UniProtKB/TrEMBL annotation:
Keywords: Carbohydrate metabolism, Cellulose degradation, Glycosidase, Hydrolase, Polysaccharide degradation, Signal. SUPFAM superfamilies: Six-hairpin glycosidases (SSF48208). PANTHER family: ENDO-1,4-BETA-GLUCANASE. The lineage of its organism: Eukaryota, Viridiplantae, Streptophyta, Embryophyta, Tracheophyta. This is Endoglucanase. Residues 36-483 form the Glycoside hydrolase family domain. It comes from Daucus carota subsp. sativus. GO terms for molecular function: cellulase activity. It comes from the Eukaryota. Residues 1-21 form the signal peptide.
Length: 494
C-alpha cells in the first residue's frame, strides 16, 4: 500500500475514534442545567440560619448565635426554639407548621434519594417539631406566636439583641384557631412518618399529639384571624378559611395512622371542606391543592376508590398551569407580587410529586383532549427550578450563595447586620435602620435563602427595603427541598 494510502487509513481511523468518543450528533441523555446537589445542600442549610433558641454544638451557620432564650416565660411556659419565619424575629406558628409539613412531605417522597443530606433534612424538621410539641403540650391550647410583630417591625436588630416584647399568643376553647391548629396537626402527623424508621418512640409521640391537636381543631371551630386579629394580621391573616386545613390535616392523619376514622371524615366532609376547583394557589394560607394531590395518591397508588374525585381535581390543577398567561416573559410562574417564589417552589414540588404518583399508577392527565404525561410535569417543574437557580433574563440566582450572581441585599435582619463575632456590642432597636436603607451588601451570606423573587416582568432591583421581592422565608425553601432532591437524583448527582 502506498504511503499516502496508509496515511489516509490512519487519519480515517483517528476520525472514527474521535467520533466514537465525542458523538456530536447525539445529545447527552441527561443534561443537568445546574448543580442540583449543591442547591439541595444549601436549601437545607438555610434553616440553620433561621433557628431560634439555644443553638447546638454542630451548628454550621456560625454567624448566628443563641436568641429568644426566655421565650414563653411571660406565660410561664417553655417556648424556646423553633424558627423565625422570614427576615424578622417573630415566631409565627401558622407558617412554621406549614414549613414543617412541606419539609416532611419532601422527605417522605424523596428522602430516599437525598443520601448524605437526609440527616440534615431530618434535623431541620426536628428543630421545628420539638418546638411544636412544646406549643401543644397543654390540651385544647396551642401557643401560636411569640413576639409582637408590630413592635418587632419597628426595629432592625439582630435576633441575638432582641429587646422587643416577646408577647405570647395562644388559641384555646374560647379563642379557637382551626386553621393553625389543623395545620399543626398536619405537621406533626407528616413528621411522624419521617421518623418512623429512625426513632419509633418519637414518631409515635408525634402521631399521638397530632391526633389530639386535630380533635381540638375540629371540635372548636373558628378562624384565628378573627380571634387574634390584632396579633396575626396583616402578617399571617388567613384569607382562605379553615376548611382547607381541616381537609389537609385529616389527609395527613389518614396517611400517618391508617385509622379508617380519617378516611370516613374525608368522605363525609370532603365536599363541604373543598373549595372552588378554580382555586389553584398552594401555600401557607391555602392547602386545597396540596390536599387534593395528597389524597389522589390514596386513589392512584393505594386504590382507595372512594377518593377517585381527587384525581380529577388534581388534573384540573395541572391543566390550570398550561396557559402561558400565568408566566412572566422569561417563563416564571407568576401568582402575585408578594413573595411570588413561594408559589413557584410549592407548585414545582406538587408537579414532581404528582408525576411520581401518575408514573406508579401508569396514568396521565387529559387537558381538554391534550395529553399531559408525567415527563411533561417534571419538565415544567425543572424549568421553574432552573429559572430560580439562574436561567432567567437577569442571569440571577434567587438562592443566596448559589451561582455566580445572587441577591446581595436580602431583607433579613441577622444577615444584614454585623455578626456578634465582628460586632460584640449591642445594636439598638433603631440603629440598624441605617444599614437597612444602605446599598452595602449584607455582611453575612445567608446561604440557601430563597428570596421573594422578580416581579411579573422578570425585574429584580435587589433592594433590602423591598420585602415583597427581597425577603426569604422558610415556606419558600421547604417545598424546594423535595424538588431539588428529585432533580439531583435524576441527573445522577446524588
Amino acid at each position: 500500500m502506498a504511503f499516502s494510502s496508509l496515511l489516509l487509513v490512519a487519519l480515517f481511523s483517528i476520525l472514527l475514534t474521535n467520533a466514537a468518543a465525542h458523538p456530536r450528533h447525539q445529545a447527552p441523555k441527561h443534561f443537568a442545567s445546574h448543580n442540583y446537589k449543591d442547591a439541595l445542600t444549601k436549601s437545607i442549610l438555610y434553616f440553620e440560619g433561621q433557628r431560634s433558641g439555644k443553638l447546638p454544638s454542630n451548628q454550621r451557620v456560625t454567624w448566628r448565635k443563641d436568641s429568644g432564650l426566655s421565650d414563653g416565660s411571660a406565660m410561664h411556659v417553655d417556648l424556646v426554639g423553633g424558627y423565625y419565619d422570614a427576615g424578622d424575629n417573630v415566631k409565627f406558628g401558622f407558617p412554621m407548621a406549614f414549613t414543617t409539613t412541606m419539609l416532611s412531605w419532601s422527605v417522605i417522597e424523596f428522602g430516599g434519594l437525598m443520601k448524605s443530606e437526609l440527616q440534615n433534612a431530618r434535623e431541620a424538621i426536628k428543630w421545628s417539631t420539638d418546638y411544636l410539641l412544646k406549643a401543644t403540650a397543654q390540651p385544647d391550647t396551642i401557643y401560636v406566636q411569640v413576639g409582637d410583630a408590630n413592635k418587632d417591625h419597628a426595629c432592625w436588630e439582630r435576633p441575638e439583641d432582641m429587646d422587643t416584647p416577646r408577647t405570647v399568643v395562644k388559641i384555646d376553647k374560647n379563642n379557637p384557631g382551626t386553621e393553625v391548629a389543623a395545620e399543626t396537626a398536619a405537621a406533626l402527623a407528616a413528621a411522624s412518618l419521617v421518623f418512623r424508621r429512625t426513632d419509633r418512640t418519637y414518631s409515635k409521640f408525634l402521631a399521638t399529639r397530632a391526633i389530639r391537636v386535630f380533635e381540638f381543631a375540629n371540635k372548636y371551630r373558628g378562624a384565628y384571624s378573627n380571634t387574634l386579629k390584632k396579633f396575626v394580621c396583616p402578617f399571617y391573616c388567613d384569607f382562605s378559611g379553615y376548611q382547607d386545613e381541616l381537609l389537609w390535616g385529616a389527609a395527613w392523619l389518614h396517611k400517618a395512622t391508617k385509622n379508617p376514622m380519617y378516611l370516613n371524615y374525608i368522605q363525609q366532609n370532603g365536599l363541604t371542606l373543598g373549595a372552588d376547583e378554580g382555586d389553584n394557589t398552594f401555600g401557607w394560607d391555602n392547602k386545597h391543592v396540596g390536599a387534593r394531590i395528597l389524597l389522589s395518591k390514596a386513589f392512584l397508588v393505594q386504590k382507595v376508590q372512594s377518593l377517585h374525585d381527587y384525581k380529577g381535581q388534581s388534573d384540573n390543577f395541572i391543566c390550570s398551569l398550561i396557559p402561558q398567561s400565568q408566566y412572566t416573559p422569561g417563563g416564571l410562574l407568576f401568582k402575585m407580587d408578594d413573595s411570588n417564589m413561594q408559589y413557584v417552589t410549592s407548585t414545582s414540588f406538587l408537579l414532581v410529586t404528582y408525576a411520581k404518583y401518575l408514573t406508579t399508577s401508569q396514568k396521565v392527565v387529559n387537558c381538554g383532549g391534550s395529553i399531559v404525561t408525567p415527563r411533561k410535569l417534571r419538565a415544567l417543574a425543572k424549568k421553574q427550578v432552573d429559572y430560580l437557580l439562574g436561567d432567567n433574563p437577569l442571569k440571577m440566582s434567587y438562592m443566596v450563595g448559589y451561582g455566580p450572581r445572587y441577591p446581595q441585599r436580602i431583607h433579613h435582619r441577622g444577615s444584614s447586620l454585623p455578626s456578634i463575632a465582628s460586632h460584640p456590642s449591642k445594636i439598638q432597636c433603631t440603629a440598624g435602620f441605617s444599614v437597612m436603607k444602605s446599598q452595602s451588601p449584607n455582611p453575612n451570606i445567608h446561604i440557601g435563602a430563597v428570596v421573594g423573587g422578580p416581579d411579573g416582568k422578570d425585574r429584580f432591583p435587589d433592594q433590602r427595603s423591598d420585602y415583597f421581592q427581597s425577603e426569604p422565608a422558610t415556606y419558600i425553601n421547604a417545598p424546594l427541598v423535595g424538588s431539588l432532591a428529585y432533580l439531583a437524583h435524576s441527573f445522577g448527582q446524588l
